[in-house]
Amino acid sequence: MDCFELSSESPYELLLKVAFLIPISHYFLGFLFLLSVFLYNFIEMYFIQELFTGFRGKPVSLTFNSCCDLYQEVVSKCKTLNGRFSSTPWLCSPHLQTAFLQFFGRAPACSYRRQIFQLSDGGTIALDWLRNIDVKKPSIERFDGVQSDDKSPIMLVIPGLTSDSDSAYIKHLAFKMAKRGWNVVVSNHRGLGGVSVTSDCFYNAGWTEDTRRVIDHLHTQYPQAPLFTVGLSIGANVLVKYLGEEGVNTAIVGAAAICSPWDLLICDRYINRRLVQRVYDRALAIGLKGYAKLHQTVMSRLADWEGIVKARSVRDFDHSSTRVLADLETVDTYYRKASCTSYIGNVMVPLLCVSALDDPVCTREAIPWDECRANKNIVLATTHHGGHLGYFEGMTAKSLWWVRAVDEFLCALNSSSLIHSKKVTTVHSSLETSIDPPYVNIREDGLVTAFSNDPSGEVGSQQNEQPVEDDKAGDRIRGVNGAIQLETNATTQFDPRGESTRLEDSGSRGPAKMLVTPEPDFDAVIVPVKRCLNQLSRRSKISMWVLAYIAIITTWPILGSASPMFFKKKLRNIFSLKR
């Protein structure tokens, strides 16, 4: 009877009674466990993965051209770039790395010396200097500037969006390089660093004119000092775009781009994709609105102030402000024009690019792998972790990995022969050309032709490419072996076979027109065949064997039908002699 009464009770009532028997503390522990699992995945932590590997980190991936002298002479000597990056154990998340840099940073004390730089349009830029003497013995003496005959290297720093010389990551880099004996100067953007906007011009992600003027000023004032530049975040986009616009006509001898957005349109789509990315979008928009409010008197007159106040994202701000100030139709047009990706192929100075694959702001989808690989002057270093400009390492998180990498790279570059010799360049017709630049090549038959550096055949074509050097005047390009030169006036070269080859300059930066005088003989048929054979032999070591195999297969039916007739005739002659 008791069993019958127990079974007649509702199962839900039984479950409720059992639930009341469980202590509340157990429910609280279970809730904490589920919350920790959710947060672990939401902020993309990788503590457990690092724990299983003993916090050794993952190796740095380097992308470069197979003929890259920059890697052979500089990057190969940098232990940091050829090693591993291991995050601080309690910051094993791209979001923790990025947030810790923003709110804590642990930046060293830097006693800057300010210099006001006036621009031709009436704008004002604050140049904050940090010298080696300021790091070793800070003082409050009046800043007299760097001596014009000082040969110490100068490093120009271009900050990120709404950042200035007081930002933590800027101080980490400036302090490290000043301690090395370098003179560091931070070029604050217009309206930042405590300086008012004194013209109707504002900076943006694609504005390179201010950087150009500052570089020209530094080179004029300190002509004997090698000039290096480091761009950070949006500053990296400005730097790469500037280097692509200038080509060989820049005073910069080496540069580094850290956490560049590369393609602003892709990053705009990415930053609105997930909830955690929208937090960054909102935070950046708040920073931009704060910048606009500092200069409300000018901004409200030139842009849509009501739209700026209501902006809740970076795109909203750019629609109401940046697009209007740049006189562009749409925000996407601004993003396309301001992105530096299309300028990478024209970078002619040694450039180190560092990006994190888990960057929560500048997505890995925008990294131009192929463009960087095609340019001999660029080495792209990517890490699995690091966040956006974070890269904290060590148990105490007092140092940034990318600061050590830039330090080693620039010091090795400064002591190398790359900055003391003529710049190795490639010939481009315009910024819109493909990433596959033409080279001048002298073939075995003596003809001068244009040779394309196909990425698929990089390794096999190393011995056939003829790198070219640009002299100081930029008027002629000579081959390494001295067998060919391109001058502004048309010249005539004679190859070993007596053929004349005429080279004409188009009068611009485009590739020279090559007019080859053909010979009206049998060589007109042989030369194309030899050219095809050379191209096949460059592709791989087995190309000739494949060609021979194809030749045998295709000619076998003819040989098979002709061989019986040949042997039959031979046998008939033999028997006729015996008779």
Automatic annotation (TrEMBL):
<keyword id="KW-0812">Transmembrane</keyword>
<keyword id="KW-1133">Transmembrane helix</keyword>
<keyword id="KW-0472">Membrane</keyword>
<dbReference type="InterPro" id="IPR050960">
    <property type="entry name" value="AB_hydrolase_4_sf"/>
</dbReference>
<dbReference type="InterPro" id="IPR029058">
    <property type="entry name" value="AB_hydrolase_fold"/>
</dbReference>
<feature type="region of interest" description="Disordered">
    <location>
        <begin position="451"/>
        <end position="471"/>
    </location>
</feature>
<feature type="compositionally biased region" description="Polar residues">
    <location>
        <begin position="451"/>
        <end position="466"/>
    </location>
</feature>
<comment type="similarity">
    <text>Belongs to the AB hydrolase superfamily. AB hydrolase 4 family.</text>
</comment>
<protein>
    <recommendedName>
        <fullName>Serine aminopeptidase S33 domain-containing protein</fullName>
    </recommendedName>
</protein>
<dbReference type="InterPro" id="IPR022742">
    <property type="entry name" value="Hydrolase_4"/>
</dbReference>
<feature type="transmembrane region" description="Helical">
    <location>
        <begin position="546"/>
        <end position="567"/>
    </location>
</feature>
<dbReference type="Pfam" id="PF12146">
    <property type="entry name" value="Hydrolase_4"/>
</dbReference>
<feature type="domain" description="Serine aminopeptidase S33">
    <location>
        <begin position="154"/>
        <end position="366"/>
    </location>
</feature>
<feature type="transmembrane region" description="Helical">
    <location>
        <begin position="20"/>
        <end position="43"/>
    </location>
</feature>
